[in-house]
What does this fold into?
Amino acid sequence: MSPPNPFILASSASPHLLPLLRSHPHLATTQDPTGYSLLHALTSYSHPALLLTLSREFHLDPNALLDSDGETALFAAESVAVARVLVEDMGCDIGVRNREGETAEEKIRAEGEWENEEEEVADPAFRARIEELAARDDFRDEEGQRRLKELVTEAVRGVERDVGAEGRDVRRRV
It folds into this structure.
């Protein structure tokens, strides 16, 4: 029986993705026939935490995985938060040009993406907690994963609370 499709797991941030990749590490760098990688998928579906975990755990270079258009995952970013993870945390090169000669920023601006999105500023205390947890030796064992689940649950509950605020769809800045 073949392993589940990692692209489908990535699109939904499935909890089965990391165990699959740990069992089959070669899948972390797999690309479809158009060059679309797991980094592209996690970026386009806006899963910054999983993107960062995947990058760190499997030592993925975001500049090495180009699709058939010569685009890094940064070109697929749908939000400032995901772009920040790629550039600031993973070292994605903002100067990469695709086959049409555009940088990710130029392409995004030309397509009118992000026009209504405000610049998000991450909560430094929450970010420090994430980085502290990821740096722990026990991050991969049961206790580390329990703490990660608690942290993610806390973040999701904050977002859920903010969505209900005054009937508006407001995202908590984490």
The longest helix spans residues 142-164. The CA atoms of residues 11 and 41 lie 6 Å apart. The chain is about 50% helix and 0% strand. Residues 159-174 have pLDDT under 50 and may be disordered.
